[in-house]
Specification:
11 strands, alpha/beta, Tyrosyl-Transfer RNA Synthetase, 3 domains, six-stranded mixed β-sheet
């Protein structure tokens, strides 16, 4: 089914984002709406370089910036060359590992290239985006200036009552360092600096940044007697309701060298139905009416997931990346496994597809138990007798079957499946 997946202009950006479930919190919606409807504004979002790639948790704020840009506003992307050296304590149980200046600058170069895939930084018009680095102003600031001109506006009483700080203060094992405690001041000053030098009046971020954003708004009011605004997007969480982040296991990165297009595509196919419809609204430009209409009339498993996976993979990895992901997926889970290239198999192993290494002359029963497709030999025999087992997409019902040379693709691999969704790639120890 084809969907309208394009936006030429967004009339009311706040209403549009609310309709798509893309706003978690907002300051003074009525006043901000009035400003946005009267003139183009400059807004910004910050990203700290704590790895050499962004991940899917960063996509929501990036696409929010993109939508503001489509509505005629000017986005700034702040890369934290300075704050990245400190480490944001938000919702972290322990202090981040501190990186060197040279490392963070290398990461910034890579992240800049990724951001350019989503935000227009090249068009020569009023809404052209710009990427800035807060190291450019913090590196020339001495400690006395920081304490006298910025620190005096912050109340320790208020700071230690923030949920993030209170949680860490109660942690006897880690607590919080003065370095991390200062992060709130630095991010707040970012907003004040960007307000003064770039006329930015709106900061957006993940909902875990709400406290830091409010502190920046308060600082602008204290320093310049002016109003500024904040908006947060919902934090994306995984199956266990844990925030997507670079320190969590199984992070889905935007860099194809860290998460391949196939692995990226499979991630979206395998999310639950409720999340699929939610993410279609946040991450695609398919109309909400189309999404709701599709949801109401179609209850078959994974249709929404396939639409989402296609849109997301093309967004991040382009048409070529999508074609690769679809080709491997179709061949792997259909009867065309022999069409997979040797590089495809190498990529699948790298992506962490369930796999085991076995010796030649292994029996099918042994392979099923070692691959955990069966919990015991008796269960393995039951699955084989029930015609539930395929070897390279061919049914195998011989209970005492021993793997043959002909079962090895490229003399190295065999795909063993139980039913449609349970599988394991065997690597043969030749």
């Amino acid at each position: 089914m084809k969907y309208n997946n394009s936006i030429h202009m967004i009339d009311n950006i706040i209403d549009y984002l609310y309709e798509r479930g893309s706003i978690a919190q907002i300051t003074d919606r009525k006043k901000l709406n009035a400003v946005l409807n009267s003139q183009p504004i400059t807004l910004y979002c910050g990203f700290d370089p704590t790895a050499d790639s962004l991940h899917i948790g960063h996509l929501a704020p990036l696409l929010c910036l993109k939508r503001f840009q489509k509505a005629g506003h000017r986005p700034l992307i702040l890369l934290g060359g300075a704050t990245g050296l400190i480490g944001d304590p938000s919702f972290k149980d322990s202090e981040r590992k501190l990186q060197s200046f040279n490392t963070t600058q290398k990461w910034i170069k890579k992240i800049k290239l990724q951001i350019a895939l989503f935000i227009d930084c090249n068009s020569n018009n009023a809404s052209q985006a710009h990427i800035i680095d807060n190291y450019s102003w913090f590196s020339s600031m001495n400690i006395l200036t920081f304490l006298r001109d910025i620190g005096k506006f912050f109340s320790i009483n208020k700071m230690i009552n923030k949920d993030i700080i209170k949680k860490r203060l109660k942690n006897d094992n880690y607590g919080i360092s003065y370095t991390e405690f200062s992060y709130n001041l630095m991010q707040s000053y970012d907003f004040a600096h960007i307000y003064k030098h770039y006329d930015a009046i709106l900061q957006i971020g993940g909902s875990d940044q709400w406290g830091n954003i409010i502190s920046g708004i308060d600082l602008i009011k204290r320093m310049y007697k002016k109003n500024a605004y904040g908006l947060t997007v919902p934090l994306l969480t995984n199956f266990n309701n844990i925030k997507f982040g670079k320190t969590e296991k199984n992070t889905i990165w935007l860099d194809p060298e860290k998460t391949s297009p196939y692995q990226f595509y499979q991630y979206w196919i395998n999310i639950d139905d409720k999340s699929a419809y939610h993410f279609l609204k946040i991450f695609t430009d398919i109309s909400v009416q189309d999404i709701n209409s599709f949801k109401n009339r179609d209850h078959s498993y994974s249709q929404a997931q396939y639409i989402l996976a296609e849109n997301m993979t093309q967004l991040v990895h382009g048409k070529r990346g999508l074609n690769i992901a679809q080709r491997i997926s179709q061949n792997l889970f259909s009867y065309n496994i022999l069409k997979l290239t040797l590089n495809d198999f190498h990529q699948l192993i790298q992506d962490g597809i369930p796999n085991i290494i076995l010796e030649t002359n292994t029996s099918l029963q042994e392979a099923l138990t070692k691959s955990k497709l069966a919990t015991s030999r008796s269960q393995a025999r039951y699955f084989i007798k029930s015609n539930a087992i395929t070897i390279n997409a061919h049914k195998q019902s011989k209970i005492e079957y021993i793997f043959q040379d002909s079962d090895r693709i490229y003399n190295l691999y065999t795909l063993l499946k139980r039913g449609k969704k349970n599988y394991c790639l065997i690597q043969w120890n030749i």
